[in-house]
């Protein structure tokens, strides 16, 4: 006898979509990590958000990257100031119109 198979429900389709996208694995990993915490955080939702946002990177990597970004921003600001200063000094020595006389 042939088996009748009911059409897939939207719920089942959505569940498969989440599995294929890796969402189920990510959520499971974060929840397992929360479960294994010796001292549970006071705000479980914040814990989940932080660990999902990290994309698998340890917090120390994220902090190091943030520090590097801050350092590079400061360097960029210093270089922009130096560039502005050099341009103004150059204007003092260049004749009008920027052309150099022969």
UniProtKB/TrEMBL annotation:
Chief location bin: nucleus
> What ranges does the record give for the region Disordered, renumbered to this chain?
83-102
GO molecular function of the protein, one example?
transcription coactivator activity
Signal sequence, renumbered to the chain: none
**A single GO CC term, please?**
nucleus
Q: Where in the cell is it found?
A: Nucleus
Comp. bias intervals (Basic and acidic residues): 83-95
Q: Tell me which UniProt keywords the record has, alphabetically.
A: Nucleus
- List the InterPro entries: AMY1 (IPR026060)
Against PANTHER family, the record matches this protein to: ASSOCIATE OF C-MYC AMY-1 (PTHR13168), C-MYC-BINDING PROTEIN (PTHR13168:SF0)
Which family does the UniProt entry place this protein in?
Answer: Belongs to the AMY1 family.
Protein's recorded name: Uncharacterized protein
């Amino acid at each position: 006898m042939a088996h009748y198979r009911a059409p897939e429900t939207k719920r089942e389709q959505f569940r498969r979509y989440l599995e294929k996208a890796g969402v189920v694995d990510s959520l499971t990993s974060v929840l397992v990590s929360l479960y294994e915490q010796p001292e549970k955080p006071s705000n479980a939702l914040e814990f989940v958000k932080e660990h999902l946002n990290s994309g698998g990177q340890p917090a120390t990597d994220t902090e190091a990257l943030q520090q590097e970004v801050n350092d590079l921003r400061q360097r960029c600001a210093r270089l922009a100031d130096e560039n502005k200063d050099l341009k103004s000094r150059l204007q003092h020595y260049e004749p009008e119109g920027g052309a150099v006389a022969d």
